[in-house]
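User: We ran a pulldown and think these components assemble together. Before we commit to crystallization trials, I'd like a predicted model of the whole complex to look at. Sequences follow.
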Amino acid sequence: MASLSLKSFAGLRQSSPENHHPSITALSKPLSPSQINYRRLNVIASKSSPKITGRNLRVAIVGGGPAGGAAAETLAKGGIETILIERKMDNAKPCGGAIPLCMVGEFDLPLDIIDRRVTKMKMISPSNVAVDIGQTLKPHEYIGMVRREILDAYLRDRASAAGATVINGLFVKMDKPTDKYAPYVIHYNAYDGKAGSAGKKTSIEVDAVIGADGANSRVAKSIDAGDYEYAIAFQERIKIPEDKMQYYENLAEMYVGDDVSPDFYGWVFPKCDHVAVGTGTVTHKADIKKFQTATRLRARDKILGGKIIRVEAHPIPEHPRPRRLADRVALVGDAAGYVTKCSGEGIYFAAKSGRMCAEAIVEGSENGKRMIDESDLRKYLEKWDKTYWPTYKVLDILQKVFYRSNPAREAFVEMCGDEYVQKMTFDSYLYKKVVPGNPLEDLKLAVNTIGSLVRANALRNEMAKL
Amino acid sequence: MALFSSTPTTKLPSFSSSSKTHLPINLFQSVKPQRQLLFMSIRSTENGSGAAAVIVEEKTDSEVGNGAPVANLVEEVALKYEDPKWVSGTWDLKQFQKGGATDWDAVIDAEVKRRKFLEDNPESSNNDFPVVFDTSIIPWWAWMKRFHLPEAELLNGRAAMVGFFMAYFVDSLTGVGLVDQMGNFFCKTLLFVAVAGVLLIRKNEDVDNLKKLLDETTFYDKQWQATWQDEKKE
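Assistant: Here's a predicted model for the assembly, 700 residues in total across the polymer chains.
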């Protein structure tokens, strides 16, 4: 894993990451079969899978968001016959729209996709203590704010240019194979660009399926992947006056408090020409409107005079589904449940998991020459869990410790004032690596954290006496 | 004859007991000299360090009724946290002096009241009046004296009682004296369990809380491992 990290991120840290992007995997360029085999030591099952004659491996990807688009591109480049099925090509998804810096490099995103570069964040505690974070950012570091319809379309178009077939249709159901290497039959309604039509019932045969169809995944249902707990994220897009928009030029805000959300946070994120004000919750979904009102109240002075131009909501998974793959069907992105706790970030992980799954398929099928089976897809799961488990676990711990109660949130905001914390937070967010950091500073941080928590809890106990 | 409830707080300088007729309160549309006015300042506490908006009530005299604007409503200023000691988004420590040194207990009390107020009445965060108070300005010994020491006394007392009784009990059963007990491994284990018990279980609910906490720490891991259970079964 260490070598992987060096390969991935050394380039990003040295110079302007936009031009200097190390390819994460050599498989993005098609390799001849002889080159791939000899590297792997523990190939068992796929070696015994039959060679496909007369055609390449066919894979269907259900869902054309970041996960589907990234997977389709990698598959197509790897020589696999790829079909990408997306139901709404211009879908403006309700989303925070924040992408970490490493995504720009890893996925070669053009800079004009990014509407805004957020370089400052303000954390606001329940008692309105406001802390600015971002002073430790280097000039080339930022959080990119994108419009989902632009990003998703770009990734799909790139997949199409690489050779994938992009179909506008709605996945209906999937017939499981009757034989060990028999194909899956995908049934979908082809829209063909005609809006509002019921679509033409179409069926295709494929050898493997990637379910990238989001939080309400139908592919997941068809493989009995199980359910997950989910949060409801509710967001209002508000157009605010120009002078107020100046304040949010490159600043995002995060409000914490029981009034705003009992287990998440409220946010004000700048978009292209308006702000998105929203909040979310897992445990108190019925009160989401109340939380939204409270969020708007907390930001009132800064969004005064604004007009609500759109209201949207969406479920966000809290943890992975009990089953993330079955036979030759794998789930990626939100469909698999790869959203982090604490920050609720999902775009990068969706795209990355799509890519990783596709790489595993390309490798296991030797660029489409062989049939794959479940063990090849398990390799993707293994790699994913190994690479990103620390990130997910750390964010889970942070959520458990700091989103528990108002005193915990006060301590959280207090801790964010510390420069070491800011540096660690941004480093791990922007580059998706849990870096150990300086042990002495870590110890000081631990002591300060405990101190903050103890003080805040002591104050809360006194409050209860009042 | 205006009636004033003698407000012990000093934060209402506009009310002076000498002025009977002309009361400079800008909340009212009109104040007629003949009016009898009853002022109540609600929610001001005795020591004056809690704060809230001023709610003023006006009762008209029964005789006055001809064309005088009836302003017998309770006018409420938008509830905003205000306190003379809360200056520029933090506590002004100079106002907390007691006998030459800062009265940290009073600072803690003030912050508690502020947080309680804001919890009940969340306020908009404003860039022009940022809140910059940090609890770490209150020195560690102030926290210790106020919160840790009483609890420590309680827990040490419990530990001492349990320890004495257990030592007596073990001695009466086995005849092993206190000093010899300390040399025995089993007794040392019992001592460790007793101390841990006193520290961790302070209230009855703590037993359940600890169990829940333990489950919580491993729950997320289990959710991630779930997909691998399938593989093991095969």
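The radius of gyration of chain A is 23 Å. That may be worth checking against your pulldown data before setting up trials.

User: Thanks, that helps.
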